[in-house]
Amino acid sequence: MELCIDRVSKIYGNKIACDRISLSLHKGVYGLLGANGAGKTTLMRMMCGVLCPTSGTITFDGIDVGKEEYRDLLGYLPQNFGYYPEFCAMDFLLYMAALKGIPKVHAKEKASELLELVSLKNEAKKKIRTFSGGMKQRLGIAQAMLNNPKILILDEPTAGLDPKERIRFRNLISSMSAEKIILLSTHIVSDVEYIADKILLMKAGQMIHQGTLDEILSVIKEKVWECRVEKNKADELSEKYPILNFRNEDEDIFLRLVSEEKPCEGANRTEAVLEDLYLYYFNELH
Amino acid sequence: MTDKLKKEIKEAFEIDSPVGKKQFLKDFRYPKLNKTDFILEQIFYIRKKTWLFSVLIMGFIFWFLHFYENSSTPNMNLWIISSLMPFLALIFTVELSRSSMFKMEEMEAGCLFGLSQIFLARMLIMGIWNGILLFIIALTANLYLPEGMIKIFLYLLAPYLLVNGLSFYFINNKRERGEIYSCAAIAVMVSICGMIMPRFLKRYSENIGTWVMSVVWITGLFMVLTQLRKMHKKLEEDRWNFA
Lengths: 286, 243
Ligand SMILES: Nc1ncnc2c1ncn2[C@@H]1O[C@H](COP(=O)(O)OP(=O)(O)OP(=O)(O)O)[C@@H](O)[C@H]1O
Ligand SMILES: [Mg+2]
Known about the structure:
The complex is a heterodimer of chains A (286) and B (243).
Chain A: E1 3-12, E2 15-25, E3 28-34, H1 40-47, E4 55-60, E5 63-64, H2 68-72, E6 74-77, H3 89-99, H4 104-117, H5 133-144, E7 151-155, H6 163-176, E8 181-185, H7 189-195, E9 198-203, E10 206-211, H8 213-217, E11 224-229, H9 231-240, E12 243-249, E13 252-258, E14 268-269, H10 274-282
Parallel strand pairs in A: 3-8, 3-9, 6-7, 7-8
Antiparallel strand pairs in A: 1-2, 1-4, 4-5, 9-10, 11-13, 11-14, 12-13
Helix pairs in contact in A: 3-4
Chain B: H1 3-13, H2 21-27, H3 35-43, H4 48-67, H5 76-82, H6 85-96, H7 98-101, H8 105-109, H9 115-144, H10 149-172, H11 179-201, H12 208-238
């Protein structure tokens, strides 16, 4: 089971949204991180056969993305989606099931099973227009899993979910990771930290890093420092080093920064977390 | 045979409980719907409103034919029925562009039966349905009007084709999601033209209306065919383009 992305680019006018991305995905959970406009959605759309790459190929075990066979194995949650206002949650899932070619008998069973999983069982007969943002999102997640897909691509699935539902979602994803390729993008760094086996970092259309959490953190390992300094000193330090966190504390300023060696007197080395790395790459502060 | 022996035999032949039954059932891939089943199932997803409105238009035409005498202006009643056809075409277009109106395109495009096939299914269902309606309207009109079947078909189809052709053009060349408003505007405009035309044409010969309709008919048909080809190509090759 291998999803192979080979030198895929997407160009809009003179804007390169994805720049020669090559990846090879196997069973497991992949977390795609990147700032707004990094090209996450563009990449995922191309991986779903919804958008044509300007160049490059995407195949799953030799099956091209453009093929029906590929779409049969795919579950996709777009970042933004609407719904037909006259549908209730159940109608919606049955409609999507029909598009996925699932016969009615199986569809009903599967739909109620999924509604239970995303805790919308009691809302099954309610019109979607009465749903909150998070409920709609959960319905979208359920929809993606209707056909028991081998490739599950979720664009910001946790957007709008409350903490309880987010944890439920994490568990759901983890329970499925043994048999599927799951790719999810998010801005919530902790989601990725908990469930992703591998992390992909995108910046300005390029894949700048990929690996397990430890591999990826090794970039700034032993290089994260915390200190409390005066205002003047803080300005001086922020000129010199990438700043991860910045907080006023009484007279002083608390700083968390990245540096090869000890940046100043009284600075303490601390454990690096994914959030640090994310800020290190994507923060415009430095 | 003693009970003990029976029991032992039974135990000896007992098969182990199945391993991974649950997993098997989960992974079991039942045969998927074929295209015909898919299209048939889509009939139930055409909105009730759509059926209702088109039947209402037909009902109105029956009512009109029944209660209105032929007026002095030549072909006046036929012109009036004809100017209701743009709304039938509009209903068709609205149903077709439902995915884009409600932002379902992307989700639908990622399914086994992708956007092009949903489009095709709706096109087929609505095409056949409108064909039936047009046929019934024409047959009924023939009972009330003196013009004859050929002329009736000409007058009914010309504005219908024109509005559909223009609507498809707007769908193909849409910039934002507002294409449906353009289609509605076109339908209203063509309809009004149809209402005004006979009074305007009265000054000329009686046959001029038929000539106008023939030209509109041919233009409309040409537009529908070219735009449909374009639409098909776009859906098959380029895949959907998201704004
Ligand atoms: N249809 C389009 N036409 C022109 N430019 C586009 C189009 N879609 C995306 N872009 C550009 O491509 C780049 C990548 O966009 P993309 O939506 O993939 O970002 P993203 O990583 O998903 O961001 P976000 O976190 O905000 O969802 C952006 O700079 C965007 O402006
Ligand atoms: Mg995005």
